[in-house]
Write a structure and sequence with these properties.
Order of helices and strands: HHEEEEEEHEEEEEEHH
Largest sheet: 8 strands, mixed
Keywords: Metal-binding, Zinc, Zinc-finger
InterPro entries: BAH_dom, BAH_sf, Zinc_finger_PHD-type_CS, Znf_FYVE_PHD, Znf_RING/FYVE/PHD
Radius of gyration: 27 Å
CATH topology of one domain: SH3 type barrels
Distance between the termini: 92 Å
Protein name: BAH domain-containing protein
Helix content: 10-25%
Organism: Blepharisma stoltei
Shape: elongated
Number of strands: 12
GO molecular function: chromatin binding; zinc ion binding
CATH architecture of one domain: Roll
């Protein structure tokens, strides 16, 4: 065959099929090797480490969020100890209108799971930091309290959460809000109604 001459179409297809078969054979040998761990986490998420917060998929359940406390390997099987978060709305089914859709409660529930159950890393930040970040990120969550599943209690209790606005409810970052131009207190747009220009709260307007 002359150099640079294009192979006929049927021969090119045969060559592509042979190359694909060769790659598949190499993968099969790698998977069957005693030095290769078949856990998907090693192939897809090699950077998972202690302290990371991840999405966790257990068979028969919807994905949950947990903190990785420890990773260990015994007899070639990798497992990790995790500390579960509870979703305020999906998991606890709380209906308070001051709870955010991406709000989590860290719990004292500890569990050992196969490392292959780890799906991906997510970010869990404080409420104050969450308000400054892009909330369109589906892997971004915030937390401001803990939850005890045995006692079914939240700490600090809702009554101790910081109150804002005229409605005197805890802040929900999902709702639109504005700060008073003078005292910088926080108010929900739904609570103050229409206004023009900079907003002054009732107290600051009275003292102005």
């Amino acid at each position: 065959m002359q150099k640079g001459r294009l192979l006929p179409l049927h021969k090119r297809r045969l060559l592509q099929e042979a190359q694909a078969a060769y790659k598949l054979l190499k993968l099969e040998k790698m998977y069957s090797s005693s030095s290769y761990n078949s856990s998907p986490i090693d192939f897809a998420m090699p950077s998972i480490k202690t302290g990371d917060i991840c999405s966790v998929r257990l068979e028969g359940t919807h994905p949950g969020i947990a903190k990785v406390l420890e990773i260990k390997e015994e007899s070639g099987v990798k497992t990790c100890k995790i500390q579960w978060f509870y979703r305020a709305i999906q998991d606890l089914e709380l209906s308070h209108d001051f709870l955010g859709s991406n709000e989590l409660f860290i719990s004292n529930l500890i569990q050992n799971v196969d490392l292959a159950c780890i799906d991906c890393k997510v970010d869990v930040v404080s409420l104050e930091e969450y308000k400054t970040l892009d909330k369109s990120d589906s892997d971004l969550y915030f937390t401001r309290a803990s939850y005890d599943p045995k006692k079914k209690t939240v700490n600090p209790t809702f009554s101790r959460w910081k109150r804002v606005c005229y409605c005197k409810k805890p802040e929900n970052p999902d709702k639109e809000f504005i700060n008073c131009a003078k005292c910088h207190a926080l108010f929900h747009l739904a609570c103050i109604g229409d206004f023009f220009g900079k907003y002054l709260c009732k107290k600051c307007t009275k003292n102005n």
